[in-house]
Structures are given as C-alpha cells and as structure tokens.
Design the sequence.
C-alpha cells in the first residue's frame, strides 16, 4: 500500500504549518511514518521551518513552489505535487502518510481528489465568526473543517458557539473541530479523523 | 464471526480484481447475488477519484478501500471475491448539465466561463457536460450569469443516463 495523501488548505496564516507541527508530535508517538510537502508562492519558507524544527529527517520534507495562485498546484494542475509525492513514495517504502500543505489561499481553494485522498481546511477565529456563513467552497467541501486559534476568541470578539454552529450548518453537519495549536489543544481529535479516514488504525 | 469486523477494524480492500461488465465477472456476481453473498458499495461520482475511502456496503459492513495510485475506481469494480463474500463498487454517473452553445462565439465564451468556475466538464459532440458535485442551485445561478454573455441551451441529465 502506498502512503495515504492528506491535504491541508486554508487562508494565509490560519495555522496550517502549526497544525502540521502538532500532528507530527502525535504521529511520532503513534509510530506513524510521515513525510510532508509544503507549497509556498515563490519561497521554501514552510519547508525550511519544518526542517529547522527537526521533527522529521530533512529529506522527508519537500517544497513545491506554486509560482502563482496556490490553488493552481492543488487543483487545476497538481502535477508538481504529484511528482513530489511519488518521489517520497519511492524513496521511503514504509511511509504511512504524506501531509500536503497548500500555500495560504482564499476560501474558494479546494484540493483535487486526484492529488489527495482526503483533505482538511483550516480557518481561524481571528478572521471573524461570519467566515463559515460565507460558504466558501473550502469551508463547505473539505472532509474536515478545523477552526484554529480558539484561544484568541475573547480577544477578537468571536462567539465560538455561534461560529461552530454556523460552520456545522453550512456543512450539513460534516465534522468541524476546534484547535489551539499554540497550546496543543484539540490535536488528538484531528489526528483521529485522519487515522479513521485514511490510515484505518 | 463476520469477516473483518473485529473490534471496529474495517475490512481493507486493496485491489481491483475485475469488472462486472466483463462477462465472466458478470456471471460470478449474479451467482454471488443469488447465494446472498454479494455486497454493493455505492460511491458518489465526486468521490470516485479518491484512492483511500472509509465506507459501508449495502449490508452495513465497515470497509476501507486503499488502492494503488495507478488504479482508478470505475463502476462495476470487483473489490473482493473470497470466503463467500463478493464486493462490487457502484458509481453512477451522477446528475449532469448538458450545455450546447448556439454558435462558435458562444462556444468559446461558454468554455472559458466554465473553466473559470473550475467545473468538471466532459466534451460530448457539440456540448459540454458539467458534472454536478452538489445541489443544482449554485450551478443555475452561475448559468444565469453566463446567459448575459453567450447563447446556449441547457439539458439536465439524470443520474444513470
Ligand atoms: N494564538 C494562536 N496563534 C497561533 C495558533 N496557531 C498558529 N498561530 C500563529 O499564527 C501564525 C501563523 O501560523 P502558521 O502555522 O505559519 O500559519 P499558516 O497557515 O501555515 O500560514 P501560511 O502557510 O503562510 O499560509 C504564527 O505566528 C503562529 O504562531 C493558535 O492556535 N493560537
Ligand atoms: Mg504555512
């Protein structure tokens, strides 16, 4: 079985890389073998950050530069990411999962299922509690919606109950989870979703 | 004991053995059905490209599909055939909108328009068939915009035509 491919999309700065850092802790404890592909516009920032962290061997972290709108390489023509994922599969025979971080984009960005088996969309509370109501395709179509930075709710005047309620409503009750990546809260629940959906363990 | 259903573990299906459109598999599926040994897993067309999926069969069996990257899932795929259990995937074509432009200029504009919306499209003779991966309304709203730019007819095609 080749490694499962999981996409992580969402607006600029919502905490996609922070969530990956937390998930890497969880997967390491569970003996799940991981590699990561990051997408940035014209730099390798996120890949370099993950390499500096030292949670994974540096060769398990690949960077793909989108060059243009980040969604182009996760949806319209995901070839650069497919090539990177195939390379990781060939290089590391025992990989369980490849996490693929999209460059920060807008609410319309979605992953092609030719690229990933399953994907989540990460928004954060500081964007405002009306974000789910705007029915962005990323919010609606993702397999999992993560609302990050729950710790900031009191500082940005966001009512978490309203925000989660509306998110579940626009998603027809598909799963919505809250996280605080700074403190490591809610990570196990996100990991469990991934494990149930594509790792089956 | 029911196969593969110990302690919440799904039955993992990791190969496509054949397709019920092939006569030999068609006959085997028929026989399995008569013996009560056939289970169907229904997959929405929008989900079919996934290589890994957690689903339930029509007999509520928890299954996990994990196919090699180079194998695509198509309607009629046989995912298991052993120990008195055959599992077949059913993927209907899903509802589509067939758009037929009135003239060349309209065709160019309509094609560009659908592309900008990232709609999944198939080109069939002189028409574009749009795969609807959700409710009709958003598609109708956008097509109302397109009518201001070009001339075309719309026909709604039901799931399995
Ligand atoms: N307070 C708080 N800050 C957070 C949390 N998660 C992430 N941050 C901060 O938010 C900022 C952006 O986080 P990143 O993980 O870089 O976000 P990203 O989505 O990967 O950003 P791009 O890849 O540039 O789109 C950083 O300064 C993080 O420290 C959280 O749960 N709470
Ligand atoms: Mg990032």
Sequence:
């Amino acid at each position: 079985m080749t490694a499962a491919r999981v996409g992580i999309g969402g607006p600029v700065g919502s905490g996609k890389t922070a969530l990956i850092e937390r998930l890497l802790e969880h997967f390491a404890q569970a003996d799940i073998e991981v590699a990561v592909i990051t997408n940035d516009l014209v730099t390798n920032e996120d890949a370099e950050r993950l390499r500096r962290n030292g949670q994974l061997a540096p060769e398990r972290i690949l960077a793909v530069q989108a060059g243009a709108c980040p969604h182009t390489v996760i949806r319209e023509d995901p070839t650069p990411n497919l090539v990177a994922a195939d390379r990781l599969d060939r290089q590391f025979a025992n990989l369980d999962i490849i996490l693929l971080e999209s460059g920060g984009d807008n609410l319309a960005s979605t992953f092609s299922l030719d690229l990933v088996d399953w994907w989540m969309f990460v928004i954060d509370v500081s964007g405002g509690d009306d974000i789910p109501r705007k029915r962005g395709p990323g919010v609606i179509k993702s397999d999992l919606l993560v609302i990050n930075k729950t710790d900031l709710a009191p500082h940005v005047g966001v009512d978490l109950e309203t925000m989660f309620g509306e998110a579940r409503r626009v998603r027809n009750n598909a799963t919505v989870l809250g996280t605080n990546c700074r403190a490591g809260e809610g990570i196990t629940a996100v990991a469990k979703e991934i494990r149930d959906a594509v790792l089956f363990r | 004991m029911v196969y593969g259903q110990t302690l919440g573990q799904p039955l993992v299906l990791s190969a496509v053995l054949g397709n019920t459109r092939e006569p030999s598999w068609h006959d085997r599926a028929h026989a399995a059905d008569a013996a009560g040994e056939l289970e169907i897993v229904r997959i929405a067309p929008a989900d079919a490209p996934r290589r890994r999926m957690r689903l339930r069969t029509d007999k509520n069996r928890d299954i996990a599909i994990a196919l090699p990257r180079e194998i695509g899932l198509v309607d009629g795929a046989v995912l298991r055939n052993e120990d008195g259990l055959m599992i077949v995937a059913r993927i209907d074509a899903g509802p589509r909108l067939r758009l037929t432009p009135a003239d060349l200029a309209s065709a160019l504009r309509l094609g560009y328009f659908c592309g900008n919306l990232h709609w999944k499209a198939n080109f069939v003779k002189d028409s574009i068939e749009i795969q609807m991966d959700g409710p009709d309304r958003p598609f109708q709203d956008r097509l109302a915009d397109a009518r201001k730019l070009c001339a075309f007819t719309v026909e709604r095609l039901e799931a399995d035509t």
